[in-house]
Please model this.
Amino acid sequence: MDKNEFLKVIAEILMTNESNLKEETELNSFPDFDSIAALEISMFFEKRLNIEVFPMEIKKKKTIKDLLELGKFI
Model:
């Protein structure tokens, strides 16, 4: 999986367009960034990236860049 594929999945979970996902974009700016989204992102990290991360850790992340770093894309 590359960075673009990763962002596509994150955009789907946050119910937004990929063009809205810049590194500096605040996760809290998305109305759909809630505990369900955190759970979905957590499961995505586990299943597709083999990275174990708990939903509460996802909720502590502030920006798209934080997710990219967690996924080892930057």
The two ends are 13 Å apart (CA to CA). The chain has a mean pLDDT of 96. Residues 11 and 18 are 5 Å apart (CA to CA).
